[in-house]
Amino acid sequence: MNIARVDLNLMVYLDVLLRERNVTRAAEQLGITQPAMSNGLRRLRELFGDPLLIRTSDGMTPTERALELQPLIREALLAMEKTIQPKEDFVPESSQRVFRIMASDYAESTLIPMVLQKVRANAPNVTLDILTPSDVSFHDVEQGWVDMAINRFDSLPQSFHQMRIWQDDFSCVISRDNPIFHKFTLDAYLASQHIWASKTGMGVGVGVNPEDVQRLGWVDEALAAVGKKRKISVFTRHYQVAMLLSAQNDLIATLPSKLAEMERFNTKIAVVPPPFEIPSFDLSMAWSPLLHHDSAHQWLRQIIKSIK
Q1: How far is CA 305 from each of CA 108, 256, 261, 284, rounded to the nearest angstrom?
Q2: Which of 27, 36, 62, 171 satisfies CB 3.0 to 4.6 Å to 260 for a cystine?
Q3: Tens digits of per-residue pLDDT, 100-118?
């Protein structure tokens, strides 16, 4: 087959079709009509001599040939993006770029203020658009619509680049009027009421089942490992709310230490080590290979990397 006679736009169509597995959604992604996408799928079938996508009870299902093609097409398109991307030096002092960053509540409270300080000092006209995990999907990051995701990741798409920003452990935030403040033992901790603060991951959030320890996170998994369980009275997705509520004299918030230390000057509460061992965690940034060689993106990553 002569590559010069192949419409390379069809490879873009195929990439989106195999990702969306729906002709209508694929057309919307590319900003074309559904008939145009259907025609593209017909031409792709002729080109490869394979139906590629077959309508089943589960929707459009890729054939074995399509599954073989998917990583090859994705890799080829990424290489093409890199090839044709204009190479321009980023000038922070004059740039008016908007960086869209997905940041967890934890990262937004601890990291972003320091990032903003350095950005404003070096690039006064650059804007940061901070999004929550519920606003963003991995697909948004992969396509480069969101510059970066900053969070604690259990898993990431294989194509993503990532870098650890820092490692953190946990502390307990407790009211100084709490009767157990001066005798903060594991038994006292377990007898108290607790505030749970976390996020279920990227995408739309869901409710929490208090009995599902495996989904409650590091603190409850660490307790389960020693055969213990805490009493949770409040579930929140905002660490700042957890710290405010911990001022009540019968509640305890077990939070990442960098966040808890932000309240060290608050005379109503104290920050103390937890009375049991909780594994530390990494805060990382992840980004699309489409942006890996972008000079402005490299500048922002360097800014973030420099923060400890």
Answers
A1: 16, 20, 21, 10
A2: 171
A3: 999 988 999 999 999 999 9
Angle at 91 between CA 86 and CA 93, to 5 degrees: 155
* Angle in degrees, CA 152, 306, 122, rounded to 5: 120
Of 68, 92, 83, the C-alpha closest to 14 is 68
Whole-angstrom Cα distance, residue 160 to residue 74?
Answer: 13
Among candidates 101, 103, 105, 112, which has minimal Cα distance to 198? Answer: 105
Handedness of CA 176, 180, 185, 186 (dihedral sign): negative
CB contact at 8 A, 283 and 151: yes
| Beta strands 281-287 and 193-197, pairing class | unpaired
Prediction pTM value = 0.67
Whether residue 48 has pLDDT greater than 60: yes
CA-to-CA distance for 67 and 18, rounded, in angstroms?
8
Q: For residues 27 and 41, what is the distance between their CA atoms, to the nearest angstrom?
A: 11
